[in-house]
Amino acid sequence: MKIVYSNNAKQDLKQIYNYISRDSLRYAQIEIRSIREANKKLKLNPFLGKVFERSNNGLTREQIFKNYRIIYDIIDDNIILILTIHHHARLISNNPAFKPDE
């Protein structure tokens, strides 16, 4: 099974890194590595996370890791698409991953 990061998820990782690196480059690197390691667990069990509240088919799920909601789609038996890595303190409705395309 392959883990693929959407552009939104890549941007989320970059923002997390930039925010933490203001205080510590080392801890920013550790946090990003920890998030990626948590996502690797999905390779063994893609149904590890609970069904995301906006899912129509049960294949959009979320895994809670530290202060983050990692929201992902199970595309098929081979691919998991990480949609976003969302900090729990922010409103999910403000997340660009869930804005309608303009």
The percentage helix is: 25-40%
What kind of sheet is the major sheet? Answer: 5 strands, mixed
The total tally of domains equals 1
According to DSSP, the number of beta strands is 5
Q: Terminal Cα separation, in Å?
A: 32 Å
The residue ranges in which pLDDT falls below 50 over 5 or more consecutive positions are: none
Gyration radius, in Å: 13 Å
Write up this protein:
It is a single chain. With 102 residues, this protein is an alpha+beta fold. The chain has a single domain, classed as 2-Layer Sandwich (YaeB-like fold). The chain is 34% helix and 27% strand. The chain is built from two helices and five strands; from the N terminus they run βααββββ. Strand 2 and strand 3 (60-65) form a beta hairpin. Helix 1 (7-21) runs antiparallel to helix 2 (25-44). The termini are far apart. The model has no long low-confidence stretch (mean pLDDT 91).
